[in-house]
Design goal:
heterodimer; A: about 160 residues; mainly alpha; Arc Repressor Mutant, subunit A; 7 helices; B: about 80 residues; about 70% helix
Amino acid sequence: MFVELFREQSVPLIKYLTSRFRDREDAAEIAQEAWLRMYRLDDVDLDNPKAFLFQTASNLAIDRVRRSSLEQRFTDATFADDDDGHPSAERTVAAEESLFVVERALAELPEKCRQAFVMHRGQDMSYVEIAHALGVSTSMVEKYIIRALRHFRDKLDA
Amino acid sequence: MPHALSNTTESTLRSQARGAEDAAIDWFVRLRARDCNPSEHARFRAWLAADDTHDLAFRRIARLWRRLGRVRDLALEPTARN
């Protein structure tokens, strides 16, 4: 049941969440959480798994908006001068820092491993497409992605 | 030697967490394959439910994955270096 559901609904779910949410990363995070909840269920008494999935995601999205608008009100009240619609200097620095850390960790990977990771995460290419592009097997592509993720885990989660 | 003991416990815990993360990474990568099949999904679900540390590890990896969305900003020259 989950495989078909995932195959059919993973893109529609993201689209649905993005249309309500605007922020692509927020939408992806909520979709992942909704899928995890589906996985944690016993698959016995679910009449309409698709409806349940979208309802779960929708509830998570509403929770998120509620929480962030509370945080926003607190931030607005605390830093009233900073409410000009531009990202704060602090946030910009944090974003640049994390990009730098990612870039440096990426550069430490072997060539094909790095290419495979960028093609998959950065360009949404499938394992099969990457395998063709790099002239390796798809199982090798999976090994490259695993290796890259372990490396990033070590470098980014310090 | 309580100090040595607590060091050992801490490093054991750390290596357990690391082991769970390694498994979570393996699952994460497999689930993203287009040819991932129903029995693999069933095994993943069993693994996820087997231990709370598995669930936590998988969430950490999912979070890492989202952070790595930043490579989109670097993706213009994937083969720049030879």
